[in-house]
Amino acid sequence: MDAVIEGFRLVAEPDVLIAIFLSAIYGLVVGSLPGLSATMATALLVPVTFWLSPIAAIATIITASAMAIFSGDIPGALLRIPGTPASAAYTDEAYAMTRKGQAELALGAGLWFSAIGGIVGTLSLMLLAPALAEIALSFSTYEYFWLAFLGLMCATLVARSSPIKAIASMLLGLLISCIGMENPAGTPRFTFGIPDLLGGIEPIPALVGVFAVSEVMRAMATAEPPKLPDRKFGSILANQWMLTKKYQWPMWRGNFVGIIIGVLPGAGADMAAWVSYAMSKRFSKEPEKFGTGHPEGLVEAGASNNASLASGWVPSLLFGIPGDTITAIAIGVLYMKGLNPGPTLFTERASSMYALYIIFILANIIMIPLGIVMIRLASRVLRAPRSSVMPLILLLCAVGSFATGSNVFSVMLVGVFGCLGYAMEKNGYPVAALVLGIVMGSMVETNFITSLIKSDGDVLPFFERPVSSILAGLTFAALLWPLGAWAWARFPGRRRRTAAAAE
Amino acid sequence: MQLSDRITGGMLVALGAASAWSGSLLPAVPGQDVGPAAFPMIIGFGLMGCGALIAIGIGRSFEVDDLDEPAPKTGPLSGLRVLIPPALLLFYALAADTLGFLPTAAIMVLLGAKALGAKWPLAISMAIIGPVLVHLAFYKLLRVPLPPGLLPAPW
Fold first, then answer.
1. Residue of A nearest to B18 (CA)
2. Could you report the predicted ipTM of this complex, rounded to two decimals?
3. By the number of CB atoms within 10 A of the CB, which of A81, A308, B5, B27 ranks highest?
């Protein structure tokens, strides 16, 4: 109980409260601007967190990411342009509601169910993480290898693109993580004689390049999105309670699916929203209404993407394996602030963990009033011309990457990764898989090589321990599912028969 | 930048082969079977396999076209416009130490805003206000060292 009180005391510090408030506004604004994703908002915050206390640093990341995921719904509903990829799944639906004159209902549902999803996700984090910490204490390098590998495989499922391209992106990320001498043997690899490469490629310049610079590059090549007409909104939260009661089951299903997808290492809010929207349509009593401005899918997917955000912290805090690209950044900040991820975090730094839960709940509660203000101001914020926002983003990329690396080399690295991210995105290679490969590369390699050394080059011990055999099974399932899906599509006769049986 | 799957797949095969080959040249750790060469070689072979599959077009059926790709800008050299942001970053990296943060950032913002089609008054006011605000936030508040150069900030 002392730890809980200590957690409240940590959050009640003025610097933490100010950090929460400012990062909430930042997250809402950045998330609502089309093209600027929640991951990018978080990546640009990293240099700021250097100079904050540990709790305040984590608070900025939690708050900004939660706000950005909600506020991505705003341009989705009003302009049919998702503000963040996590909103893309239901953008058409929300826009159809706006055209029917139900903009308030669509935006309100985004806000209300985002907040509920966030809070339910936090509760799952509070329950799951300490329980799993008990099991995680007995994990050895074999389990860690499979967990990291499973995370990488899940990252390849996230993308709605060819699984082979996703695996190729992930391998490219792993290859980039080989650069430098931070490998078990300490041998310099792929440094091409450049001393700056000896230390390896830090994830932050890679993230900033891939998610922010490539977006500025895309803005150069595309026409300015349409301006938002001025619009007066009625009550935002009216009828939300009615929706909550009417779509109680979809809401809980959305929360549940979001939590599961969040807990899976490597799969995050984008995937949660797509899966939940598809499930909502599949299990709905009125599937024909989907796509015509029906709130049911919005309820389920809106809850789901915010729930996954909180539960994505479970693998990050326990194993240091990112649940998604946002927590990939958060892990770096945790290490920097001396809160090294691992099962002992829950016993030794319990008060910090309680503070983290409290921040999550607090962020999701203040999301409602601040979100209403944001919706009402949206037409003003979204009118900021792209030609004024993008150059500033680029400047922040330069300054931020200079601050993290303290040399001009990281600024150039950001530019290189911007080009790489742009080219990959253009050709259908998912960049999230690349980033997770870079972040998790050294972890996969260290655990793989140490396990092999321990077992004298034998692969059998990788499957012998009970937990590691389960994790291995899951990993192979994730690896082989595209093959299964392909075979399923290849045998139309069988599919027709099952369809007939279902009717 | 849109390339065919054959080309990107071929590039991946080449990259994988290069990484497996140069990985195999890495010195082994005496007395151990697995050393620094193992991981790059596994990745290299994986990349070669994926690249080959992509080149022959397997997995294409999973790709979903984006709902609404915003209309591309047309005009001469429009393809090269995308290289402006990395070029500006390169300019920052090379010029910041001699010119100083404020002039470099101002040039960067001005060129970036013009490239995105801003009118002169907006671009110039952005180029004056933006760097000053960023300098205040990072230098004063966060204490990031920013190069003073020719035009040191008065604070």
1. A190
2. 0.90
3. A308
